[in-house]
Amino acid sequence: MIEFINVGMTYPCGNVGLKNINLTINESEVTVFIGPSGSGKTTLLKMINRLEDNTTGEVKINGKNVKEYDIHKMRWDIGYALQQVALFPHMNVEENIAIVPELKKWKKEKINARIDELLHMIGLEPEKYRKRKPSELSGGEAQRIGIARALAADPKIILMDEPFSALDPITRASLQEDVKKLQKQINKTIVFVTHDIEEAFLLGDKICIIQDGELIQSGTKQEIISNPKNDFVKKFIAIKKKEGEAHE
Fold this sequence. Notes:
six-stranded mixed beta sheet, about 40% helix
């Protein structure tokens, strides 16, 4: 379980990034942070693995303040998938996936078995893809490898920061469905950042709407649609409703 308790962030220049965030993220659920650019959603995500540090309040994982963990070991136990996949270009697919297991000193046989398992899981044939370099992959394939790398050491928490936003609509829709199916198999705690309400509703067990550094509303898709808290939330839902009406 991840908890944000009265969490705030003020930058050295005096700008306020986050204001008094209180939120509980349940185990084995997909929690989506959504909001416009600059709203603070990525900053909030990064506080979980301390790529950003809160200036007030506490962020806790399993009841322990994240600042009390060994930062390197904590990060090895949290998977991270980004919009820009950031695969190491000089490494092939299997080497990219193996990075954290090697840091954790897994045996070679275990790492090899894990690479095969993950490639099958994300729908890529190990014999065909193991030795490929990132330059030989399509955008969708590279993003799948990024997800495999995030899962490699079997972390309990996966952070996904707009991982599909740079992809074309067809590839993006395919990967969204893949993540939904994958979550049923792996049952991880996933925190997912997006600015797309359709993606949030598709993937999220809990949706957290963030505006100007504040958590405006959180709840299930149905709770937010049925009872939007303010005009800002209504605007997000109106966009979704218009899309639905256009397809009828």
